[in-house]
Design a protein that fits this description.
The complex is a heterotrimer of chains A (246), B (569) and C (196). Chain A is mostly helical. In chain A, 37% of the residues lie in helices and 0% in strands. Chain C is built from one helix and eight strands, in the order E-E-E-E-E-E-E-H-E. Classes of the chains: A mainly alpha (246), B alpha/beta (569), C mainly beta (196).
Chain lengths: 246, 569, 196
C-alpha cells in the first residue's frame, strides 16, 4: 500500500493524482463542483486500476475516446512548436463537459465519430486509426468541407467537424479547471501570459516589452471565487466577438 | 389566487441600469419604494476571470434566467416568418449593468434635434423615407445636469472636451458643453492605443479616450479597474465597474426606504376603476402576489417594457396599458453597432489585458459633425478602438487565407498572430421607422404561458450607408496605423434582439405618437412611468446607458416633486 | 457546358465553345497538349482523385509547349458549380518552365516540399480557401465536367509575400493577362449517385 500522498488543493481542484473514483471530501469553505472540477475524477494515467498508459473516461467509450483523440491530435498536433491537444488533455475536457454543459452533444459525438471511421474506410481503405498522418489530414479536410461521400454522415459532416474543433479549442485554451490546457500548454502556445486578477500599468509595459512571464495560474487558484458549477445547459454558443456592445 | 401585499408608494419593475438608478432619488426624497427584480444577487465572488463560463457557455445567460425564457422572436419585415434567437441580457440586482462593457457616453446635442437640425442644414427631404423620427421634447441643455449627476453619483471616468464652451483638445471637441470635468481621469491607454491615436491625428482627426462607468482610480471606497481582461460579459471582482448593484441600490437601501425583492417575475400591471395603475401582479416560487402601489415604474428593459404594457389589458386599456393611441411597440430599433472591420497588424497588439471601455474614440464622423452635402445619409458613426482579447476567442480568429484553421501550419499562424488582429466597434446613428416595431408573438410563449415579444425590423438604407461609410473610415484608420490586411463584416439586415434596444414606449410631447411625456410618465396613465432605452427616440453614435440613467434620475426627481399631482391622477 | 470530344484514345480536347466562354482566359490559341495516366478526356475520373477515394491530385503531363515559357499555371475548375461559377478545385502556379508535368498526389500541406523539378511551385487558394487539391464532390445526379487547364506564361509571377494570402483563380487570371503564350486543357467527368 502506497504511503498517503500529500495532495495540494490546486491538484485536488484539477482532479490530478487522486487514485480511484471515490469522492474526496473538499476542504471546508471550498465549493467544488462534482463535474467540471473532477472531484470524482477518472484515474490519472499512472494510477493503479487503470489499463497501462490508458486514461479512463467517464462518458466517452474507449473506442470513441481513441478516435476522438486521434482526431484532436491532428487538429492541434504535437510538433516542433510544442505539445498539442492530446498532451493538453483536450479529451479530458471534452469527456467531462459531455457530462455537464455539453451533454446535448453526446449523441452527435457518437454518431460523428462512427461516421468518421466509416468514411475513412470507405474512401481511404482503412479505418481512421490505421491511416498515416497525411491521410488522416486528408480525411479531416473532406469532413470539414462537407464533401464526404453522401450517406455516411447523418446530416452535415461540417457541423460535426466544427463542433469538435470548437470543443478542442475550448479544451486547449480554456481554464485548466475544466480539465484541459494541462500545464498551461495552450496558453503558452498563444503566448498568453495567463489569467491574473491585477494588471498594473507596469505589468502592461512589461507585456509590451515582451517581459511579462506567464504566471501559470488557474482563475480558481484564487480562493475568492465561487467555482463554476456543472450545468446541463444546451446553451453552448460562442458569444465571443459577436459585435454587440453593451 | 393572488396574495395581496401591503401597499407601497412606488413599485419599480426591474432593478437593472435604469430601475437601479431611480430608486435612489426616490428613497432620498422619503418615498417608500419596493424594487421587484426577477433575478437574484450576484457578487464579486461570482466573477472569476473564466472565459469558458462567462463567454463560451454564456454563464449570465443560463436557461434559468427570465431573459432566456422570454427571448423575443424576430423577423426582418412583416411578410417574413419570425424566428427565435437568444436574449443578450441577464437578470440580477443590477441587471445587465453587472457585466456590460460600461462605456458611458452622453448624447451629443444634435441627437436631440435630428429633425429640426436636418431641415435647417440640408432640407426636409433629407429625412430618410419611412422614418418616424421626431425631435426630443427637450434638448441637451435640459438633460446636462442629469448627465453630471450620474457621472458623479455612480462614478464615470473620462476626459472632458468642452467645459462651458472652452474646448480641451485632450477630449472630444464635438461634445456638448459640460458644467465640469469628469470625477475621474479616463482609463489608461496601452501602447497600441497611443499608436492609433497618433494615426488618427496624422489623418487630421481628433482622437480622445472614451468615458466609462468604471473607476480609473479609487472612488467612493471602491477600487480602480484592474484591467484583467475579463470585463466583456464579465462581472467586476473589485467593484470598479459601477453597476447599480454597487452604487445606487445599496445607498437607497441604506436610507431604509427601499425594499428589494428578488426572484419576482411581474406578469401584469393592474389598474383601478378610474384607469389609474393600482399595482402589479408578480409570480415568485410558483406563488402569485399583488403588490399595490401609488406609482408604478416599468424598468424591465426595452422588450419587456413593451411586453408588460401589451399584456396588461383592461376595460380602460383594451389594447394594452397606455396603448389607446396604438404607440406601444412603435418606433422600435436595434442600434446599428455591428459591421465591424478587422485588421491584421505585423506586430503584437498586447491586448491580452484591458477592457472594451478602454480605448481611443474618434467622433469626427458622428452625428452632424461633418458636412453631409455630398453624402446620401444623415447621421454618422463613432469610431472606437478598444482592448478585448481572451485565449479561446483569439484561437478562433479568421486566418485570412494565410493558414488553415487547424494543423501545424495553423499552430504556427496562431502563435504568431493570436495577438495581432484588431476589430473595431462602431456605434452609428439609428433612427425609428414606420416598418420597425414590437408586438406580441402570436404563437411563441414563455413558461408561464405568456406571449413573448416579436421584433419586426431591419436596418434601412440610411443606416446601411452609414455602416459602409464607417467601414471606409475604419479601414483608413487601421492602414494609417500599419495594418497589412483589412476585412469587413456585413453591413446589416434583420434586427435581432440587441443589447442596445430603443423605443416601444417613446418619449415625446405628442400623445398621438409617443407613449410617455417629457418626464417619462405615461400620457394616458398619469401614475405610470417608464424607464430605460425604450423611451429614447434616437440613439446617437453611443450606447444608451448613460442617457437612460440620466432620464431615470430625472423621472424620479419629477415624481418626488410632483407627487401630489401624480398620485391624484 | 460540354466540350466537343475527339475519338476515344486521344487525350487531346478541342473545345469549340471555349472562345465564347466567359470562364476561360482566352488570350491565346490553344496549343498545349495535356494528358494524364489516370484521366481520360471526357470519361469519368477514378475515385482516387475525389473525396470518395484518397482525394489525391492527378498526375498531368504537357507537351507542345510554346517557346519562351517561363512558368506554368494549372487550374482545375467546374463550370457547373460555384456561386458564381466556376468552382475552383485546385490552383497551382509558379511551376517552373522546365517542368513537363505534375506527379500524382502533390503535398496537402505547405510544409511538405514540392517534388524535384517543381521547386518554387505554389499551390494557391481553391474554392475552399485552402492551398491544396480537393477533387470533385458534385451533388448527386448528373456528372460534372472538371477542366484541368494549363497556362504557359512568358514571365515569372511574383513570389508569395509574407502576410499576403496565396493567389486564387481570380488573382491569377488578372496576373496572367498579357502573358499567356498558350494553354491547353484536359476535361474529365465525375458524378455521384443519388443516395437510396
Amino acid at each position: 500500500m502506497d504511503a498517503p500522498k500529500i495532495i495540494s488543493r490546486r491538484a485536488l481542484l484539477r482532479g490530478v493524482g487522486v487514485a480511484g473514483a471515490a469522492a474526496v471530501a473538499a476542504p471546508a469553505g471550498l465549493l467544488v463542483s462534482t463535474s467540471d472540477a473532477g472531484a470524482a475524477p477518472a484515474a490519472a494515467q499512472t494510477s493503479a486500476g487503470a489499463a497501462a498508459g490508458r486514461q479512463v473516461y467517464q462518458h466517452l467509450t474507449a473506442s470513441e475516446a481513441e478516435l476522438l483523440e486521434a482526431m484532436v491530435d491532428r487538429l492541434i498536433p504535437a510538433d516542433a512548436l510544442g505539445p498539442g491537444a492530446k498532451d493538453a488533455g483536450v479529451l479530458t475536457y471534452i469527456d467531462r463537459a459531455l457530462g455537464s454543459a455539453l451533454a446535448s452533444s453526446r449523441a452527435a459525438y457518437t454518431a460523428g465519430l462512427a461516421a468518421l471511421d466509416r468514411y475513412a474506410s470507405a474512401s481511404r481503405g482503412q479505418g481512421f486509426l490505421a491511416l498515416n498522418a497525411r491521410d488522416r489530414d486528408s480525411v479531416l479536410m473532406d469532413v470539414e468541407s462537407g464533401t464526404v461521400t453522401p450517406g455516411i454522415f447523418t446530416g452535415n459532416s461540417t457541423q460535426f467537424f466544427s463542433m469538435v474543433l470548437g470543443h478542442t479549442r475550448q479544451g486547449m485554451f480554456g481554464d485548466p479547471f475544466y480539465g484541459g490546457n494541462k500545464d498551461f500548454i495552450g496558453w503558452d502556445l498563444l503566448r498568453y501570459p495567463g489569467v491574473r486578477t491585477t494588471v498594473t500599468a507596469a505589468d502592461q509595459k512589461s507585456l509590451e516589452a515582451d517581459q511579462l512571464k506567464p504566471n501559470h495560474r488557474s482563475a480558481y487558484d484564487n480562493e475568492m471565487f465561487v467555482k463554476a458549477t456543472a450545468r446541463n445547459d444546451a446553451h453552448d454558443q460562442d458569444h465571443n466577438g459577436d459585435g454587440h456592445g453593451h | 389566487m393572488a396574495t395581496n401585499l401591503k401597499g407601497t408608494d412606488v413599485v419599480v419593475i426591474g432593478l437593472g441600469a435604469a430601475g437601479g438608478v431611480a430608486v435612489l432619488p426616490l428613497a432620498q426624497a422619503g418615498i417608500d419604494v419596493i424594487g421587484l427584480e426577477a433575478g437574484g444577487v450576484v457578487t464579486r465572488r461570482d466573477f472569476a476571470p473564466d472565459e469558458i463560463r462567462n463567454n463560451v457557455r454564456g454563464w449570465p445567460f443560463l436557461s434559468s434566467h427570465k431573459t432566456n425564457q422570454e427571448a423575443p422572436t424576430f423577423r426582418a419585415t412583416a411578410s417574413a416568418a419570425a424566428v427565435r434567437g437568444g436574449h443578450p441580457m441577464m437578470n440580477a440586482v443590477g441587471g445587465t449593468s453587472m457585466h456590460y462593457w460600461a462605456q458611458h457616453w452622453r448624447l451629443n446635442p444634435w441627437d436631440f434635434k435630428v429633425v429640426s437640425e436636418t431641415k435647417r442644414r440640408y432640407g426636409a427631404n433629407r429625412i430618410p423615407k419611412g422614418s418616424t423620427v421626431e425631435d426630443w421634447p427637450f434638448g441637451y441643455d435640459e438633460i446636462e445636469p442629469y448627465y453630471d449627476k450620474i457621472e458623479y453619483e455612480l462614478g464615470v471616468s473620462g476626459q472632458a472636451g468642452n467645459i462651458n464652451g472652452t474646448i480641451d483638445a485632450r477630449g472630444n471637441p464635438f461634445e456638448g458643453p459640460r458644467k465640469r470635468a469628469y470625477p475621474m481621469p479616463p482609463l489608461r491607454w496601452t501602447a497600441f492605443h497611443e499608436k492609433m491615436a497618433a494615426a488618427a491625428t496624422r489623418l487630421g482627426w481628433h482622437p480622445f479616450p472614451g468615458p466609462a462607468a468604471i473607476n480609473s482610480r479609487s472612488y467612493q471606497n471602491r477600487s480602480g479597474c484592474m484591467y484583467h481582461g475579463f470585463c466583456n460579459t464579465g462581472g467586476c471582482h473589485v467593484e470598479a465597474k459601477n453597476s447599480t448593484a454597487v452604487t445606487t441600490i445599496p445607498r437607497a437601501q441604506a436610507t431604509g426606504k427601499l425594499k428589494v425583492v428578488t426572484g419576482a417575475t411581474v406578469t401584469e400591471i393592474n389598474v383601478d376603476s378610474q384607469g389609474l395603475a393600482s399595482g402589479v401582479t408578480y409570480v415568485m416560487n410558483g406563488e402569485t402576489f399583488f403588490q399595490p402601489a401609488k406609482v408604478v415604474l416599468v424598468a424591465s428593459f426595452t422588450y419587456e417594457n413593451s411586453r408588460l404594457l401589451l399584456l396588461s389589458k383592461s376595460t380602460a386599456y383594451p389594447k394594452g396599458l397606455s396603448n389607446n393611441h396604438g404607440q406601444v411597440g412603435r418606433h422600435y430599433f436595434s442600434h446599428h453597432q455591428g459591421a465591424p472591420v478587422t485588421a491584421l497588424f505585423p506586430f503584437d497588439i498586447k491586448a491580452w489585458y484591458g477592457l472594451p471601455a478602454q480605448g481611443v474614440a474618434v467622433d469626427n464622423f458622428a452625428d452632424d459633425n461633418f458636412d453631409h452635402a455630398s453624402y446620401d445619409f444623415i447621421g454618422g458613426c463613432n469610431l472606437w478602438a478598444m482592448s478585448d482579447r481572451r485565449p479561446i476567442s483569439a484561437s478562433g480568429m479568421n486566418t485570412l487565407g494565410l493558414a488553415p484553421n487547424w494543423g501545424s501550419q495553423w499552430k504556427q499562424f496562431i502563435r504568431e498572430n493570436a495577438d495581432r488582429t484588431h476589430s473595431s466597434y462602431n456605434q452609428k446613428t439609428t433612427l425609428p421607422y414606420e416598418d420597425n416595431f414590437l408586438d406580441l408573438d402570436p404563437t411563441v410563449k414563455d413558461p408561464l404561458g405568456l406571449p413573448v415579444i416579436r421584433i419586426t425590423g431591419e436596418f434601412k438604407d440610411n443606416e446601411r450607408k452609414i455602416a459602409q461609410f464607417s467601414q471606409d473610415k475604419m479601414e483608413q484608420w487601421y492602414r494609417e496605423a500599419g495594418a497589412i490586411q483589412v476585412t469587413r463584416g456585413p453591413v446589416g439586415g434583420a434586427m435581432g434582439a440587441s443589447t442596445h434596444a430603443y423605443g416601444g414606449t417613446r418619449m415625446g410631447d405628442n400623445p398621438e405618437t409617443n407613449v410617455v411625456n417629457r418626464w417619462g410618465m405615461s400620457h394616458e396613465v398619469p401614475n405610470l412611468g417608464v424607464l430605460g432605452g425604450s423611451v429614447m427616440g434616437t440613439s446617437g453614435a453611443r450606447n444608451p446607458t448613460h442617457t437612460m440613467q440620466a432620464l431615470a434620475w430625472r423621472t424620479a426627481d419629477h415624481i418626488a416633486k410632483e407627487w401630489k399631482n401624480i398620485v391624484k391622477g | 457546358m460540354r466540350s466537343l470530344l475527339t475519338a476515344a484514345g486521344s487525350a487531346v480536347v478541342m473545345c469549340a465553345s471555349l472562345a465564347a466562354s466567359p470562364l476561360f482566359a482566352q488570350t491565346a490559341p490553344q496549343t498545349i497538349t495535356v494528358t494524364s495516366p489516370t484521366l481520360v478526356a471526357g470519361q469519368t475520373m477514378p475515385k482516387q482523385h475525389t473525396p470518395d477515394g484518397r482525394n489525391d491530385s492527378p498526375a498531368l503531363s504537357w507537351s507542345n509547349v510554346p517557346a519562351g515559357t517561363k512558368e506554368f499555371i494549372v487550374i482545375c475548375e467546374d463550370p457547373e458549380a460555384g456561386n458564381p461559377p466556376p468552382f475552383v478545385h485546385w490552383v497551382i502556379y509558379k511551376i517552373p518552365g522546365s517542368a513537363k508535368g505534375l506527379p500524382e498526389a502533390l503535398p496537402i500541406d505547405t510544409a511538405t516540399p514540392m517534388p524535384a523539378g517543381l521547386e518554387g511551385a505554389v499551390q494557391g487558394l481553391n474554392g475552399f480557401r485552402r492551398p491544396v487539391y480537393r477533387g470533385p464532390a458534385p451533388p448527386p445526379g448528373n456528372p460534372h465536367p472538371y477542366h484541368f487547364v494549363v497556362y504557359a506564361l512568358d514571365t515569372a509571377l511574383a513570389a508569395p509575400k509574407a502576410g499576403v494570402p496565396a493567389m486564387g483563380r481570380a488573382e491569377l487570371l488578372e496576373a496572367m493577362k498579357g502573358h499567356v503564350l498558350g494553354q491547353g486543357e484536359l476535361v474529365a467527368m465525375y458524378g455521384r449517385n443519388r443516395t437510396q
